[in-house]
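A reminder from the course coordinator: this example appears on the midterm review sheet, so study it carefully.

Given structure:
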C-alpha cells in the first residue's frame, strides 16, 4: 500500500530539509505505524471519510493500516450518544454553562484537512519556525492538557506536537457524530475551566478561540465532514 501525504505538511517540510546522501532528517517518516495504538485511542477509531484510501483522488492522510479502518457514517442515534457522553463528562466537574452567542468579530482562519503547518501555527500565534520541531504520533492524542482535551467518542485522524522552547504545541484533527453546537460548547467549557478566556465565532467558520496567560492559545475550527460527521481541527499552544 502506498503512503499518503500528511496534511500538516510535516513530511514534505522535513524531506525538503534532508541533505542529499545523508541520513533522513529528524522526524521524517512520522506517520503512525502501529494501528493497534491508533485504534485504542478512541472507540470507534477511523480515518477521515473525506480522505480515506477508498477515495485516493482526495487522499491526504493515512498510515500503514488506513485501508482497514472502517468509513463510518453519523446518524441521529450516534449524535445523541456523543452529546450525552460529552454532557456527562463535563457535568462531573460542575454545572454546564450555555454556549454563548457568536461574536460579531471575525474569528481565526478556517482550518481543515489541507491546512499547512504555517496556517496551523498562525492560528495560535506561533512562529513558523516552530514547524521544524513538530512530530506526529497518534498516541499524543491520549495525553492532552485539560484546555485541549478532546471529547468522548471522538475519532482521531491525526495528532502532532512540539516540545521546543517557545513552541510547546499540540495539534489534533478528529471527527465526531456530534452536532457543531455540541462540539463548540464542549471546547468552550473546557477552555474556561482551564482558565482561558473563550470566544465563539461564526465567521469565517464555526470556531472557538481562547487565550490564557502569556502565549497560551487555543483554536478549535469546525467543518462539515462527509457522512454526517463534524470535522474538528484543534491547535493548542502552551504558556511556556
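Designed residues:
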Amino acid at each position: 500500500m502506498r503512503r499518503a501525504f500528511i496534511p500538516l505538511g510535516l513530511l514534505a517540510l522535513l524531506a525538503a530539509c534532508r541533505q542529499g546522501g545523508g541520513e533522513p532528517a529528524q522526524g521524517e517518516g512520522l506517520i503512525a505505524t502501529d494501528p493497534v495504538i491508533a485504534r485504542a485511542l478512541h472507540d470507534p477509531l477511523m480515518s477521515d471519510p473525506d480522505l480515506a484510501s477508498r477515495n485516493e483522488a482526495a487522499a491526504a492522510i493515512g498510515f500503514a493500516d488506513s485501508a482497514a479502518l472502517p468509513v463510518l457514517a453519523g446518524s441521529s442515534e450516534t449524535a445523541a450518544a456523543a452529546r450525552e457522553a460529552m454532557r456527562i463528562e463535563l457535568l462531573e466537574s460542575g454545572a454546564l454553562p450555555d454556549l454563548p452567542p457568536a461574536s460579531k468579530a471575525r474569528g481565526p482562519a478556517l482550518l481543515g484537512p489541507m491546512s499547512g503547518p504555517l496556517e496551523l501555527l498562525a492560528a495560535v500565534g506561533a512562529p513558523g519556525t516552530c514547524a521544524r520541531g513538530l512530530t506526529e504520533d497518534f498516541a499524543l492524542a491520549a495525553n492532552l492538557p485539560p484546555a485541549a482535551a478532546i471529547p468522548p467518542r471522538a475519532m482521531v485522524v491525526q495528532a502532532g506536537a512540539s516540545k521546543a522552547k517557545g513552541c510547546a504545541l499540540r495539534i489534533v484533527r478528529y471527527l465526531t457524530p456530534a452536532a457543531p453546537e455540541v462540539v463548540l460548547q464542549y471546547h468552550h467549557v473546557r477552555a474556561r475551566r482551564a482558565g482561558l478566556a473563550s470566544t465563539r465565532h461564526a465567521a469565517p467558520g464555526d470556531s472557538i478561540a481562547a487565550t490564557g496567560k502569556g502565549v497560551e492559545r487555543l483554536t478549535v475550527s469546525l467543518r462539515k465532514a462527509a457522512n454526517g460527521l463534524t470535522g474538528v481541527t484543534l491547535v493548542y499552544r502552551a504558556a511556556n
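The beta strands are 135-136, 155-162, 169-176, 197-201, 207-211, 217-224, 230-237. Helices lie at 10-16, 35-41, 76-91, 117-122, 180-193.
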